[in-house]
TrEMBL record:
Residues 1-47 are annotated as: Disordered. Keywords: Membrane, Transmembrane, Transmembrane helix. This is Amino acid permease. Residues 20-29 have a biased composition (Polar residues). The keyword Transmembrane helix applies. GO terms for cellular component: membrane. The chain crosses the membrane at residues 77-110, 136-162, 174-193, 199-219, 285-307, 331-360, 381-398, 404-426, 438-457, 463-481. It comes from Streptomyces lydicus. It is a multi-pass membrane protein. The lineage of its organism: Bacteria, Bacillati, Actinomycetota, Actinomycetes, Kitasatosporales. Residues 30-44 have a biased composition (Low complexity). It comes from the Bacteria.
């Protein structure tokens, strides 16, 4: 079966189709119109090295999601255990240790994924190689959902940290969320390296702040301050004396939101500088170590200070208050948390566009997502992610509790498929030490599979059912796109040697409405392109239009360019339909002739001046493309800033 791909595996830009025919749009200034975007390739050019990540920059650009989860991971555990009262809170540390153990397995496993699949793609690449096409699409869909939800959750959590310090801003949380999203999107459009540089300082401040809270808190015997919790209602249940297995599983499932983002480094290995594998592995290990220390440290402090969750104040804010006191240091922690939570969305902006590029290369997403602009930016993927995340933020009203139940399910599905795929990878590889690697990935598959079931079951009625429905729908969407590309490839004859080109008689149709330098340039181009040229103008049987029609007819005869001017009468104010009708009739009368419609358009010197144009050329081009098989050539005539000379 033919596929829409070039011999080197890169996606070929899908054609514009109208009625099953190919429409071309040559430009007179083709060199200036050439896009700066290039298709994704397997290897980076040496000149592009400056737009790729070091290990430290990778930590700042791709690990923010996992790092920032320490702000809501422990809180998610505490809120669930609070249902069992103060006795239940005593299990916060054991639950956290279980999550940290799972984190260790995941980090070790993803180091192996990075080495085995250096072209990136994470669980999608692993599943595609070892578990089949359909399973790979499930992994891809789960990652796409997780990345989109990560943006919404991270931005919402960041704004929640701000409103915890300044309650007066609570009513404006949706506007604040959208403003943060716009800022992050703008930074990411400048390239992943510039993004990493911009986020290095906030990342360092946050890590330093949380570690300071942990270290200082461990040195205290009692809380330094409880100002943030004073006056807020406790959500702790009373008269509870036991903790059931179901409650512990639910707490574990909620805390697993802290593990999202662990896979981002493996998804974006091509974004690192050479040696990319080694740098990515270092980043993965550093991420796991820092995340584990912060999670366990905060959990120890929760038990040490006998912290009780209260409404309207985050657990991290209470811990900062208890460790550092209600002073400037407290506000530094809050601002650092707000900044990193908001910027944690950048993990998705670093990983999702790369994944979408791989899906586009395999014909499961539109090929536009496989293109890169300057600075190695998957611009279309970045903008698509921002648009969907903005819709989620508006839908949720900026409330993190609406989004968190949907979070982490998709990523655990991806975790599990990745581990199973790696087991099959090592069994086929037969490399030294493969038995230990198989055991590691197999153990990880069991843990993440059980976690996925627990998370889905415990959060099903809270919104997880949406993810259960969305995953198969996305897979069906991927397959629909793939079938469409297969059909296009079959009709284009991709993969087959075409017949030799042959010359056919050519006729160029030039729509005109008046005489000007633009008209002259259009006819110059037309007589150069075709064997025969005819100019057409649409006329209206209206007293107000007759003088202009007669003036054009008279001026054309005086000018006498050697090209016939054909008048196309119209009873309506439509411009495109009469020209398209004429081209259709011409095609029927001259079946062996190659017909081109050359549309002259003035291009103003300043961008704002385009608002002054009547868009006549676009209207004609749309009508001709929709109703005919003719080729379309849109001639751009640039107007100089100083005026015509």
């Amino acid at each position: 079966m033919s596929t829409v791909s070039q011999p080197d595996g890169r996606p070929e830009e899908p054609p514009d189709t109208a009625g099953g025919t190919v429409t071309t749009r040559p430009h007179s200034n083709a060199s200036s119109a050439t896009s700066t975007e290039t298709s994704t390739g397997p290897a980076a050019e040496p000149a592009e090295a400056r737009h790729r990540l070091t290990a430290l920059q990778g930590l700042a650009a791709l690990s923010l999601d996992a790092m920032a989860s320490v702000a809501y991971g422990p809180e998610s555990i505490v809120l669930v255990l609070a249902a069992a009262g103060g006795y239940g809170l005593g299990f916060a540390l054991p639950v956290t240790l279980a999550i940290a153990a799972l984190l260790t397995v995941l980090v070790a496993s993803y180091r192996q994924v990075i080495a085995a699949f250096p072209d990136g793609g994470g669980s999608y690449a692993v599943a595609k190689a070892h578990l089949g096409r359909r399973t790979a699409l499930v992994a891809a869909a789960s990652l796409l959902l997780d990345y989109v939800l990560n943006v919404a959750v991270s931005v919402t959590a960041g704004v929640a940290a701000l409103t915890s310090a300044f309650p007066g801003l609570y009513g404006d949380r949706v506007a604040l969320c959208l403003a943060v999203l716009v800022l992050i999107t703008g930074i990411n459009l400048r390239g992943i390296v510039d993004t990493a540089k911009a986020f290095l300082v906030p990342t360092a401040v946050f890590i330093g702040s949380v570690l300071a809270v942990v270290v200082v808190g461990l040195l205290r015997d009692a809380p330094a301050s409880t100002v943030t919790a004073d006056g807020h209602a406790s959500v702790l249940a009373h008269h509870a004396t036991s903790v059931g297995a179901l409650l512990l599983l639910k707490a574990f499932a909620s805390g697993c939101s802290a593990l999202t983002g662990v896979e981002a480094v493996a998804n974006a290995v091509p974004s690192f500088r050479a040696p990319a594998v080694r740098r990515a592995q270092r980043t993965e290990v550093a991420l796991g170590a820092l995340l584990g220390v912060m999670l366990i440290g905060l959990s120890v402090l929760i038990g040490r200070f006998h912290l009780q969750p209260v409404a309207g104040v985050t657990v991290l804010a209470q811990l900062a208050d208890a460790s550092l006191g209600h002073n400037g240091a407290f506000y530094v922690v809050q601002f650092a948390t707000m900044a990193l939570l908001a910027l944690a969305a950048n993990t998705s902006f670093g990983g999702l566009p790369v994944l979408m590029g791989l899906l586009a290369r395999d014909n499961y997403l539109p090929h536009v997502f496989g293109l890169k602009a300057d600075r190695q930016v998957h611009r279309h993927g970045v903008l698509a992610l921002a648009a969907v995340a903005a819709a989620l933020l508006v839908f949720s009203g900026g409330d993190i509790n609406t989004l968190v139940p949907l979070f982490a399910i998709g990523v655990f599905v991806g975790f599990t498929l990745c581990q199973i795929g790696m087991v099959r990878h090592w069994r086929r590889e037969r490399s030294p030490g493969r038995r230990g690697k198989v055991l590691l990935n197999g153990f990880g598959a069991v843990l993440t599979g059980v976690s996925a079931l627990v998370v889905t079951a415990t959060k099903f009625t809270e919104g997880a059912w949406l993810i259960v429905i969305a995953l198969p729908l996305m897979v069906l969407g991927f397959e629909a796109v793939h079938r469409a590309y297969d059909r296009i490839g079959e009709r284009l004859g991709l993969g087959r040697v075409p017949e030799a080109p042959r010359r056919a008689p050519s006729l160029v149709v030039v729509p005109v409405s008046h005489l000007s330098r633009l008209t002259r340039e259009a006819l110059n181009a037309a007589v150069s392109l075709g064997d025969e040229v005819v100019a057409v103008t649409v006329t209206y049987d209206d007293p107000a239009d007759r003088p202009a029609t007669e003036a054009l007819r008279r001026d054309w005869e005086l000018w006498n360019p050697g090209v016939e001017l054909l008048e196309l009468p119209s009873t309506t104010r439509s411009v495109g339909r009469p020209i398209a009708g004429y081209v259709t009739d011409l095609t029927a009368r001259r079946p062996g002739t190659r017909i081109t419609v050359l549309i002259p358009e003035a291009e103003p010197a300043h961008l704002w001046q385009r608002l002054l144009q009547n868009q006549r050329g676009a209207v004609v081009a749309h009508a001709v493309r929709r109703d005919t098989d003719a080729a379309i050539c849109r001639l751009r005539f640039r107007l100089e800033a100083g005026g015509a000379r």
